[in-house]
C-alpha cells in the first residue's frame, strides 16, 4: 500500500535551498499520518547531505542541467512509481507550476497548488489555500493516492540542516513525448538575483519613486542593506521604473516574505493581493490616508526620499552589531 | 494554423469577497464578471497572428456558466472568429483536471494547432489547466511566456524561469502556450467589431457531443475538494510611528523590527 512522503528538494548546484528543508520539516510532522518514510527527490545532483530525510532518490543526466519540462515531468512520474508515496510535496514556483500539472494529468492525480498550511485532521492531510488573491481561504483535500501538493515558500518553519540519508540513483526513461520542447538559451536576470516569490525580505517601490534612477539610487540600495529582493507596484512597472519580473500583486508575483517594506505604494487592492500574507509590513508614505496604512504593521508618514537613505544606514548599522 | 484561445470568466479583481453561510464558496450576487486578465493577453497574441495571416482563424474555447456568454461575445467583438462553449452543468465546479479533460476534448475536436491561454486564473490562482490540457493531448507546452514567435510549424517562446531569469524554448506545433503580462497590449473592441460579434457563431457542446462521460467531469470527476471557506484572518491593527525627527522614527522602526517583530 502506498505510504510515506516524497519531497522534491530544490537546490542550487547541490546546495539545498531553505524551501527544501521547510518541506522536509513539514513532512516529518505529517509522516505519522501517512505511515512509511520520507524520500527526498533530487534532480540534477547526486547527494542529499544536509537533508533530514530518510532516503534520497537522485536523478542525473544531461537533461537535468537546466530546467526542462519533459525531463522533469518524466522524473517526477518515475519517482512516484518508485517510492509509491501517499503524499507528494514540492515548493510552489514557476517551474513546479509548469511540470506538476503535467504529472497530475499523466498519472490521473489531484494537485493542490500554493497551500500555506498543511495538517493532519481525522487521519487525513488537509491544506489551507488562499484564493481570490488572498481575499478568502479554504481547506483543501486531495482524494487521489498519492495526493500532490505544492507549498508557498516561507509557509513553515525551516528545520536545521543535518543528516546524510542514503542515496539511490533513479533511472528515468525520457521518451519522445518528453522531448517536445528544448531550451536553446537562458537569459540572465536584469536585476534581482533573489527570487521574489522565495524572498524572506522584500523592499518594494511604488509610483512615488518617480524614475528608474530612483529605483537605482533609493530602492535597490535600501534592499541591499536589508539583504532583500526588490519588488514594485504595477504603476512603477507601467511607467518603466522597474521590470515586469519585479511586479508584486494580482497581475504580478504573489509573495510571502517575513518582512515587506512598501516605499511610496498606496496599497491598492490589486497590490495587496500579492503581499497581504507578509508577516510584517512596513509602509512609508507621505499621505496619512493611504490605504496601505490599514495593513501595515508599522507605518511612517513621511517622504520616501527622506526616510529611505536613513533607513538603509540604520539597518546596515543594526545588522553589523 | 488554427489558433484556439482559452477563456475563463472570473470575478473582477476589485470584487469585495463575501463567503456564503455554509462556507462552500463566495456569494456571487453582486459579483461583476470579467474575462481572466491573462486570457486577454492570450487573445491579443492570437489576434496578432490572425492579422499577420499566420492564423487562419481564432477560436475561443470557454468552459463556464450562463453569464460567461458576455465574456465570449466580448472576445468575438475584439476579433475572434468564433467560439466553442462548454456550458452544460455537468462541466461546472470541477477541479483543474476535470476542467482540462473537457477542454482538451473540445480542442482536439476543433483541430486546433496552437492553443493560447492565461498563465494563471486570478480567482483560483492555480496555474494548472493549460499544462494539463497539453499533457492530455500529448502536446508541447510553454508556460509563463512573455514572447512568442511562430515560423511555419515551429515556435520559439521566451518564458519566466524564476529569479528574473528567462529561457528561450523551441518546439514544433501543436502546442499550448500560456501568456504572461507584458507579452502585448490587448486591444479594445471597436464599434463595428461589437456589431459583427452579434452574428458570429457560439457553438455549445454537451459532454455527449465530445464523447465524454459526465462522471469524469465537473464536481463528480474531481479529486481536489475545497471546504470550510473563510475570510483570511484579520491583520492586527497597524501602528503609525511618531517621533521628533525622521532619524528618531527610523531608529524606532529598526528597533521594533529587531526586538518586537524579530524579522531583522
Ligand atoms: C486588473 C488589474 C490588475 C492590477 N494588478 C496590479 C498588480 O499586480 N500590482 C499592483 O501593484 N497594482 C496592480 N493594479 C493597479 C492598482 O490598482 C494600482 O493602480 C497600483 O497598485 C498603484 O501603484 P502605486 O501604489 O505605486 O501608485 P499610486 O496609487 O499612485 O500611489 C503612490 C503613492 O505614493 C505616495 N507618494 C507620492 N510621493 C511620495 C513621496 N515622495 N514619499 C512618500 N510617499 C509618496 C502617494 O501618497 C501614494 O499613496 C491592477 C489594476 C487592475 C485594474
Ligand atoms: N473553465 C475554463 N474555461 C476556459 N479556459 C480555462 C478554464 N479554466 C482555466 N482556463 C484557462 O487556463 C488558464 C489558467 O487557469 P487555472 O489553471 O485555473 O489557473 C486560464 O487563464 C484560462 O486560459
Could you explain how this protein is built, in words?
The complex is a heterodimer of chains A (321) and B (264). Chain A is α/β, with parallel strands linked by helices and 321 residues long. Chain A has helices at 18-34, 69-83, 96-107, 212-226, 234-238, 269-275, 304-320; strands at 5-8, 11-12, 15-16, 38-43, 55-59, 87-91, 111-115, 117-121, 124-131, 136-142, 147-151, 167-169, 181-187, 201-205, 229-232, 259-263, 280-285, 298-301. In chain A, the strands form four sheets. Chain A has a seven-stranded parallel beta sheet, sandwiched between helices. In chain A, helix 2 (69-83) crosses helix 3 (96-107). Chain A is globular, with a radius of gyration of 21 Å. The mean pLDDT of chain A is 95. Chain B contains six helices and 13 strands. Chain B has helices spanning 37-51, 69-78, 96-110, 129-137, 191-197, 246-260, and strands at residues 2-6, 9-11, 33-35, 57-63, 82-86, 114-118, 140-151, 154-162, 165-172, 175-179, 202-204, 224-230, 239-240. Chain B is globular, with a radius of gyration of 22 Å. Chain B starts with a strand and ends with a helix. The interface between A and B is large, with 99 and 87 residues. The structure holds flavin-adenine dinucleotide and adenosine monophosphate.
Amino acid at each position: 500500500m502506498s505510504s510515506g512522503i516524497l519531497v522534491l528538494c530544490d537546490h542550487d548546484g547541490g546546495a539545498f535551498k531553505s524551501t527544501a528543508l521547510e518541506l522536509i520539516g513539514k513532512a516529518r510532522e505529517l509522516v505519522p499520518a501517512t505511515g512509511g518514510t520520507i524520500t527526498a527527490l533530487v534532480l540534477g545532483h547526486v547527494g542529499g547531505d544536509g537533508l533530514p530525510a530518510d532516503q534520497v532518490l537522485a536523478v542525473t543526466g544531461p537533461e537535468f542541467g537546466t530546467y526542462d519540462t519533459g525531463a522533469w515531468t518524466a522524473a517526477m512520474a518515475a519517482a512516484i512509481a518508485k517510492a509509491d508515496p501517499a503524499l507528494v510535496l514540492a515548493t510552489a514556483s514557476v517551474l513546479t507550476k509548469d511540470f506538476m500539472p503535467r504529472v497530475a494529468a499523466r498519472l490521473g492525480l489531484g494537485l493542490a497548488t500554493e497551500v500555506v498550511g498543511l495538517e493532519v485532521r481525522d487521519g487525513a492531510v488537509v491544506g489551507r489555500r488562499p484564493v481570490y488573491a488572498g481575499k478568502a481561504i479554504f481547506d483543501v483535500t486531495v482524494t487521489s493516492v498519492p495526493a500532490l501538493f505544492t507549498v508557498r515558500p516561507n509557509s513553515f518553519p525551516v528545520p536545521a540542516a543535518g543528516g546524510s540519508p542514503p542515496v539511490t540513483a533513479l533511472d528515468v526513461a525520457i521518451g519522445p513525448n518528453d522531448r517536445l520542447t528544448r531550451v536553446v538559451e537562458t537569459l540572465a536576470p536584469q536585476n534581482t538575483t533573489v527570487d521574489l516569490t522565495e524572498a524572506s525580505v522584500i523592499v518594494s517601490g511604488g509610483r512615488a519613486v518617480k524614475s528608474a534612477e530612483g529605483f537605482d539610487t533609493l530602492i535597490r540600495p535600501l534592499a541591499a542593506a536589508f539583504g532583500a529582493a526588490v519588488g514594485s507596484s504595477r504603476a512603477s512597472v507601467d511607467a518603466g521604473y522597474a521590470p515586469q519580473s519585479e511586479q508584486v500583486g494580482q497581475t504580478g508575483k504573489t509573495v510571502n516574505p517575513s518582512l515587506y517594506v512598501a516605499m511610496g505604494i498606496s496599497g491598492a487592492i490589486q497590490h495587496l493581493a500579492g503581499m497581504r500574507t507578509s508577516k510584517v509590513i512596513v509602509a512609508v508614505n507621505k499621505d496619512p490616508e493611504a490605504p496601505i496604512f490599514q495593513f501595515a504593521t508599522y507605518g511612517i508618514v513621511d517622504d520616501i526620499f527622506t526616510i529611505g537613505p536613513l533607513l538603509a544606514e540604520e539597518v546596515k548599522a543594526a545588522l553589523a552589531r | 494554423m488554427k489558433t484556439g484561445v482559452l477563456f475563463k470568466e472570473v470575478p473582477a479583481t476589485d470584487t469585495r469577497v463575501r463567503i456564503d453561510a455554509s462556507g462552500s464558496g463566495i456569494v456571487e450576487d453582486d459579483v461583476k464578471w470579467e474575462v481572466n486578465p491573462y486570457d486577454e493577453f492570450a487573445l491579443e497574441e492570437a489576434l496578432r497572428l490572425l492579422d499577420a495571416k499566420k492564423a487562419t482563424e481564432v477560436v475561443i474555447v470557454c468552459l463556464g456558466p450562463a453569464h460567461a456568454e458576455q465574456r465570449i461575445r466580448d472576445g468575438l467583438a475584439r476579433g475572434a472568429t468564433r467560439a466553442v462553449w462548454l456550458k452544460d452543468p455537468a462541466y461546472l465546479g470541477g477541479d483543474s483536471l476535470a476542467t482540462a479533460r473537457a477542454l482538451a476534448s473540445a480542442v482536439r475536436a476543433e483541430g486546433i494547432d496552437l492553443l493560447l491561454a492565461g498563465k494563471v486564473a486570478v480567482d483560483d490562482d492555480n496555474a494548472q489547466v493549460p499544462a494539463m490540457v497539453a499533457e492530455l493531448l500529448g502536446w508541447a507546452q510553454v508556460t509563463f511566456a512573455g514572447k512568442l514567435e511562430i515560423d511555419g510549424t515551429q515556435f520559439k517562446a521566451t518564458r519566466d524561469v524564476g529569479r528574473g531569469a528567462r529561457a528561450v524554448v523551441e518546439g514544433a506545433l501543436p502546442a499550448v502556450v500560456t501568456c504572461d503580462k507584458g507579452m502585448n497590449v490587448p486591444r479594445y473592441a471597436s464599434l463595428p467589431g461589437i456589431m459583427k460579434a452579434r452574428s458570429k457563431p457560439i457553438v455549445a457542446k454537451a459532454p455527449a457531443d465530445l464523447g465524454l462521460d459526465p462522471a469524469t467531469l465537473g464536481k463528480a470527476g474531481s479529486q481536489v475538494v475545497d471546504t470550510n471557506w473563510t475570510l483570511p484572518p484579520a491583520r492586527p491593527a497597524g501602528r503609525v510611528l511618531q517621533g521628533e525627527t525622521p532619524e528618531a522614527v527610523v531608529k524606532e522602526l529598526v528597533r521594533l523590527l529587531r526586538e518586537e517583530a524579530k524579522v531583522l
